[in-house]
Amino acid sequence: MKLLRNTLLETFVAVVDCGGFTDAQFTLGITQSAISIRIRDLETALGYRVCERGRGGFRLTERGEIAYGKARDILRSARDFDAELLELRDVTTGDLRIGVVDAVNTLADLNLDKSLKRFLDRPNDVRLEIVVASPTELTQRLITGELHVAIAPFRNQVAELTYTELCQEEHWLYCGRDHPLFDLPNDQIDLDVISRYQICQRSYSMLVSPELQSNDPKAIVANMEAMATLIETGHYLGPLPVHFVESRGQNGKLKELAPNRLHWTSTFHLATRSTSLHRRAVELFVADVVQSCEANRDLQDAGT
């Protein structure tokens, strides 16, 4: 149910998200001519063109770029408003916008899939959205309200957000099969040896020791898949989560370098806005994630 809706804005945002009228017709379930009429009516109401369309393809005008951002925010707020009113019927509804960093699906101590399953197994009318981004971008999206909750190794925590510690992620330094260090015994590998070689660094988290970081890195990546690919070339070393490497089944493509001496740990937190009155969907999901991580810790403690 949509208590607050603006068909013209919904159509405009859908067209932009789909990259044009052709794909938007399937998303909206109406013809291109009907979409064209709605966009024309929107431009008439606004008094300016929001997009160019024709043989040159679809593109937003300068004012259209601004209008799109504002329209997207308005529609998101409207969906949240609808959900808050409808939840008075004791129905879990509305949007649940979750942000995560990449490669978390194999992090066993997090068990995100089980948390999501527990949440989705309940009767609900929730529109789920999952965004993968860096911790910095997730933080910004939480502050602006684009996300309700985010899970990441938030090294730089801000006052506007509330953080709950979830689990640890272990990282080792790896080299590829064609790298000079691949066949060198680990007892001959130390910081002095490693410092002779290029290390691939992440754009959002320089995880390795300060002694190994370069002020002018030759390779920067934004996700684990890209990191692993560059390491496999044999030209770079790089830190990767142990669970991620094991899940890829490398079959000897990667080698951990002196894991007893060269390893790092990331602490994952769940973050939400401190000032938000969280809706039922958000509260339930947060509780599911925290409960899952606590259960994992209890199992580990019992096994020690």
Provide a descriptive summary of the structure in words.
- With 304 residues, the protein is an alpha/beta fold.
- Among the domains are: 1-90, Winged helix-like DNA-binding domain superfamily/Winged helix DNA-binding domain (Arc Repressor Mutant, subunit A, Orthogonal Bundle), CATH 1.10.10; 170-265, 3-Layer(aba) Sandwich (D-Maltodextrin-Binding Protein, domain 2), CATH 3.40.190.
- 41% of the residues lie in helices and 20% in strands.
- It has ten helices and eleven strands.
- The protein has helices at residues 7-18, 21-28, 32-46, 62-86, 112-121, 135-144, 191-194, 224-232, 242-248, 280-303; strands spanning 51-52, 59-60, 93-100, 125-132, 149-152, 161-176, 201-202, 220-221, 238-241, 254-256, 263-273.
- The strands form three sheets. Strands 3, 4, 5, 6, 9, 10 and 11 form a seven-stranded mixed sheet that branches. Strands 1-2 form a two-stranded antiparallel ribbon.
- It is globular.
- The N and C termini lie far apart (51 Å).
- The model has no long low-confidence stretch (mean pLDDT 85).
